[in-house]
Amino acid sequence: MHWPFCLAKCPYCDFNSHVRHSPPDQARFVAAFRREIAHMRAFGGPARAETVFFGGGTPSLMAPETVAAILDAINEAWPIAPDAEITLEANPTSVEAERFRGYRAAGVNRVSLGVQALNDTELKALGRMHSVDEALAAVAVARGAFERVSFDLIYARPNQKPEDWARELKRAIAEGCEHLSLYQLTIEPGTAFERLYSAGKLIIPDDDHARALWDVTQEITAASGLPAYEISNHARPGAEARHNLVYWRYGTYAGIGPGAHGRLKAGDIRHATFTERQPERWLEKVEADGHGIVSDETLEAEEQADEMLLMGLRLAEGIDLARHARFAGREIAAERITALEDEGLVVRTGNRLRVLPAGFPVLNAVIRALAG
């Protein structure tokens, strides 16, 4: 479920997020969500909702009543499993923290907080609208309201030293959350940071410096009982994000809302769906047509195999080679795997192929070598 609105656009963000001077009409959007959910249910057929993820944008700008109404619509279309993981992304401001108990009453049982840094100067540079104290207070409120809490941090920031990042990361871990998403800062096209970077006004760590920060991340999280189960995600055993595992294990999911991607099966055919990005155009399209889909691509077997490889090798558990072969109609050439094993980048154990710690910093090259 994609809620595309934010109070401000962060300079590093290339997500489909939009700032509006007037608050959106939430009742009108709920009605549109209901229609698109019904369309996707007819498209993909009956199923049970094992996970729900409210992403953004900033979903914590929604009223708890809006979240409750959307969950009711989902349950009508795909009965929500009793043990379903229902996550909502939130900004850690005091205003939004006040809504947390309302979200819990609506059915949300996991929250993911966009903390991003535990340094006030760095938060300002990242365009964030909260302070460190406010963020940690929101984490504490979240831990009291939800069974499961995660938060995000960005590292490899300008001039960030490994020892500074180590202190920041240890402070984050001390908050006692079960899950951390730790992302290296990347310069994305079309962002304010790209314009600064292109003008020479923003300097980010070079590859060697970024690798040192990566190594610090892996060492500290592993020693603290939150090893990486995915290239950027760390969790205590059993606390992995079940919804995101659907993506990485190449499952099926419905993408609802402006700019949402989906992977739905109609019969034996897997479809890649994509909805209109611009919120007001999406709204008008749903009201006129019953859905906001602007692209519906039937994925051929080879395309599915490539997507499975791209997503699955991000996981520490790796991929099932037999499943990949069923998609591709052929096995990955043994010599490709052997060459990467000889370099210490991957390991094959039985029918599973996993990327080793040395391979994750060069994951894109590993995938190209296997897919090529």
- The count of strands amounts to 16
- Report how far the terminal alpha carbons are from each other: 34 Å
For this structure, the CATH topology of the largest domain is: TIM Barrel
CATH class of the largest domain: Alpha Beta
Describe the global form. Answer: globular
Question: What portion of residues belong to β-strands?
Answer: 15-25%
What strand line-up does the widest sheet have?
1-4-5-6-7-8-10-9
Could you tell me the radius of gyration in angstroms? 21 Å
- Which structural class do the helices and strands define? alpha/beta
| Range of helix content | 40-55%
CATH superfamily of the largest domain: Aldolase class I
CATH second-level architecture of the largest domain: Alpha-Beta Barrel
Q: Mean pLDDT score, rounded?
A: 95
Sheet with the most strands, sense and barrel status: 8 strands, mixed
Number of domains: 2
Low-confidence stretches: none
Number of helices: 15
Characterise this structure:
The protein is of the alpha/beta class and 372 residues long. The protein has two domains: 2-247, Alpha-Beta Barrel (TIM Barrel), CATH 3.20.20; 302-371, Arc Repressor Mutant, subunit A (Orthogonal Bundle). It is 42% helix and 22% strand. It contains 15 helices and 16 strands. The strands form four sheets. An eight-stranded mixed β-sheet has the order 1-4-5-6-7-8-10-9, with helices on one face. It is globular, with a radius of gyration of 21 Å. The two termini are 34 Å apart.
